[in-house]
Structure formats: structure tokens, C-alpha cells
Amino acid sequence: MNNNKKKLDEKFYLVREDVLPEAIKKTLEAKELLERGKANSVADAAQLVDLSRSAYYKYRDTVFPFHTVVKERIISLFFHLEDRSGTLSQLLGVVAASGCNVLTIHQTIPLRGKANVTLSLNTAGMTEEVTELLTKLKRLEFVDKVDVLGTGA
């Protein structure tokens, strides 16, 4: 069976934790240790939860905590800003007030008094619509331009 056909035939289930096999539970524990920086490598995480690395690799891309599948939404924004002291801090303040979590920040070196900033945001905790956030960001006096580069889950 080719990969495209296989992907179309995939089915997903919501399963209570107490009926999951131990290897899947331990894979989830290992993934959490890695995400939180409590383990430095897959080998360390697998050893800490008493799981073989092969079992970890078998399940790692097929099992996810429910909250990450349902809630996580990512948006990438591009800004063209005036280079003034404190502009990035003010921009991030507006983003934080909206309930977004900043995943990445990339800022270019300012040229001719302008700088480009790209932010990747997790919008799962947003307290307002994305359009409202964009309006607030565009109203900041030092923001020349805001573009949505992409969204994803």
C-alpha cells in the first residue's frame, strides 16, 4: 500500500490512559521529560522511564497528550519595525497580554532605522481573536507592517 493511501485510511481514537499499554504510557512520559528538559537525550529519557529506545521510536510519532492535539495552534507573524529602544519589549507585551505564548523570535540587525522581526506564537491560550491582536499590533506607532506568514497546528 502506498503512503498516500495509507494516510487516507488512518483512524484516530481517544483512549483513557488506564487502558493504554505500558509502552505507550512510558513513551508519553519520555516525550514529556524531553520537552521539559529533564532528559538530555532519547536514551536518557527512555532509561528514566524504563523503556527501550526502540519502543520509544516506534510510538513517539503516533501518540500525543490530548491537550496538545486539541489546543495547540501556531501562527507566524512578520513585522517591519522602526528601530527604537524598547519596541520589541512593547510588541511582546501586547502579544503576552493577548494570552499567546512566544515560541520563537528572530530579529534582523537594524538597517536605516528599520528592523524585521518574525514571531512564532502558540495561540492556544488566547483571550481574543487573532484579528483583534493583529489590529492592536498594527496600531503600535513603531510598527510599519504586520504580515501573517502562516498558521498551523
Structural class label: alpha+beta
How are strands sequenced across the largest beta sheet? 2-3-1-4
Q: Major sheet: size, sense and barrel closure?
A: 4 strands, antiparallel
CATH level 3 topology of the largest domain? Alpha-Beta Plaits
Helix/strand order, N-terminal first: HHHHHEHEEHE
Tally of domains: 2
| Name of the CATH class of the largest domain | Alpha Beta
Give the low-confidence spans: 4-8
Question: What does this protein look like?
Answer:
- This protein is an alpha+beta fold.
- The protein folds into 2 domains: 13-69; 72-152, Alpha-Beta Plaits (2-Layer Sandwich), CATH 3.30.70.260.
- Helix content is 41%, strand content 23%.
- It contains 7 helices and 4 strands.
- A 4-stranded antiparallel β-sheet has the order 2-3-1-4, with helices on one face.
- α2 packs across α3.
- It starts with a helix and ends with a strand.
- The model is unreliable at 4-8 (pLDDT under 50).
